[in-house]
Every structure is written in structure tokens, then in C-alpha cells.
Amino acid sequence: MVALLQVDRSRYHPSDFSVCRDAGAGVGGVQFDAKSLIIIGDMHGSWNQLDVDYFSQFPESLLLFVGDLGHGTKRSDLELVASLAQLRGPALIMPGNNDALHLGALSAELTYQMGRRRILETFKTVEIDFCGYSLHRLRLAGRDYSLISARPCPMGGSDFSFPGLLKERHLVDSLERSAEALRALVDRSEDERLIFLAHNGPRGLGGNSNDIWGRDFSLPGHADSDWGDSDLSDAIAYAKRQGKQVDAVIAGHMHRGRRQNGRPLEVKVDGTLYVNGAVVPRIRGSDQGELHHYSEMNLVDNQLEVSEYWVTLD
Ligand SMILES: [Fe+2]
Q1: What is the tally of structural domains in the chain?
Q2: Between the chain's N and C termini, which has fewer beta carbons within 10 Å?
Q3: How does pLDDT run across 268-282, given as a tens digit for each residue?
């Protein structure tokens, strides 16, 4: 269970980030004990029952959804969340900018579906939840991590997207306050090693249009092609200054699409593995049938490594 710390809004002060969520801990203070991390990139509706059945075969892995779930209509987004609630293994869902419009309804639907499971199922149900400004304790292949989920619903370019939504849900009202909230999560993390989960990647890795979070669309008046977010890059730099080892940053948003724009799955900089899991569309036709995309992160020889897969599921 994720416990939302109680906040008395009448006494809220901007420097009080108790609104950030600490995840409930399981045995030994670890919330997720996983063999690997399975990363599902921006789906934009490319998800079906075959995916539920396939990924449910790996309940020992933690699924990380990096956002932009449905087609963008309320009905499609709700159906997709209801489908995710059927998974047999744990999952964290980072909301993307395309999820912002109906995020309240999507959260309510997931809460309803998971509550229904807890009533109907006699065995222990898994944890499947939205995240954002939250801290989770993860044991990955025997190694302890604190996983920090970043700002929900970013559109990129270091803009503070959907300010009303973020103020309402998280009491964060600017990019500066967002960076402060993320730094507070770093301060509260108990593990030496960190993994960040975000929708969009950090600023600093997008100097060219085909870089992992480089801008490949025209934006009149903007010479800078870096589409990463400065609050996230600030938090990563801060964590390193505090002596933390940031082993991985997992995000999506900047699509690795059909245009073969050359945007890579991964880059490694200063000991940190940055992963862009957003291959769009993630379900594609082929001579072998429909192919479904995902990535998986494993601990190999003391290093985190990521690989991506196209699988036929029918
Ligand atoms: Fe997005």
C-alpha cells in the first residue's frame, strides 16, 4: 500500500514537501523485491489483453510505465487503466502529459479497480499505483535502491506543465518548487543508490535533435534543442553532490519512432544509465504478426544494463 502523508492544507507552507509520498514498506523496509525492471514506454493506446497476459507471467519483475497511456479520450484512458489493474505483478505508473486531462478520473478508476481486487481475491493482491513526487524502496536482484518518481505530466523543455493540476495534487506550483520537492526526496532516501523514474528525461542530454531527449520538431524562436527538464537534472546533480550513486534514470516522452531519428535507447554519462523507453507505436504489424515492444533493466556483473525486445504475443 502507498500511504499518502496527511497534509493540513490550511497550514501549508511552500517549503513543506510532506505532500511528497513515502511508499509503504514491506518486509525489511523494502516495498518491491524484484528480479528486474520491465519498462513500458509511451503507449498512446498501444496495449491490449495480450500484454496483460504476457507481463503477468513475470510477477517477480517490477513494471514501470513511463506515461502517456491511452489515446487521450477519457473513455480510452479509463479502459487502459482498468486493463493495467488486471496485471498479476507490481507496477508503478508515471503520468505523462497526455494523461493530465483526466488524471483525477484515472486515479479514481485505479483505486476502484484495486479495491475491487482486494475484495474479490483471497490471496494477497499486488501493488499497482500511480506515482509522482514519491519515494519507493526497491531491492533489485538483491541490491537495495531508493526509487524516486519525478514530476508528473511534463511536456518537456523545462516548462512547468499543468500548474493547476500539480498544485492541486502535489502542492507544487513552479519549476523551482518542483526541484525543491525532488531534492527533499533525495534527502529522505535511505539508500546509497538511486533510480529516478520520470515521464520526460533530464536537461543536459539533448544538445542535438537526435539525442536521447533532443527536440526534433520545429519551435520558432527556440534555438536550444535540449527538451529535457531542469528540475530533474537539478535533482540528479544534487543527489550526486550528496554522495548518492544515481545508477539509472528511466523516462520516455521523446518518441523513438518510425522516422528513424536515431534517438537511442540508452546513454551512460558520469556513471548513470539514462533510458528512453518510448518507442511509438509500441505495437506494430510484421510478417510474424503483431510485435509488442518493451525494455528490461537487469543487474549484470554489478552494473545495470538495459535491453529492448519486440515480441509476438498471439
Ligand atoms: Fe508525453
Answers
A1: 1
A2: C
A3: 999 999 999 999 999
The set of cell numbers assigned to 144 is 537495495
Q: What CATH number corresponds to the domain at position 202?
A: 3.60.21.10
Expressed in angstroms and rounded, the spacing between residue 278 Cα and the centre of ligand 1 is: 9
End-to-end CA distance of the chain: give it in Å, rounded: 33
- Does some domain include residue 2? no
Q: Is 231 left (phi over 0), alpha (psi -120 to 50) or beta?
A: alpha
Distance CA(87)–CA(65), nearest Å, equals 12
Residue range(s) defining the domain that contains residue 63: 19-216+224-312
- Which amino acid is located at 214 in the chain? G
Residue 5 lies in a domain: no
Within 8 A by CB and 6+ apart from 88, the residues are 56, 59, 126
* Residue linked to cell 541490491: 143
Distance 200 CA to ligand 1 centre (A): 7
What are the residues facing 194 on neighbouring strands? Answer: 146, 246
**68 alpha carbon to ligand 1 midpoint, in Å?**
5
Grid coordinates 556483473 are at which residue?
A: 301
Distance 55 CA to ligand 1 centre (A): 23
Beta pairing, strands 291-300 & 37-40? antiparallel
Residue 204 included in any domain = yes
Residue with cell 531508493: 146
Cis peptide before 281 (omega within 30 of 0): yes
Q: How far is the CA of 201 from the centre of ligand 1 (A)?
A: 11
**Residues linked to residue 128 through DSSP beta bridges, in sequence order:** 91
In a domain, 295, yes or no: yes
| pTM exceeds 0.85, yes or no | yes
DSSP per-residue string spanning 40-81: E---TT---HHHHHHHTT-TTSEEEE-S--SSSSHHHHHHHH
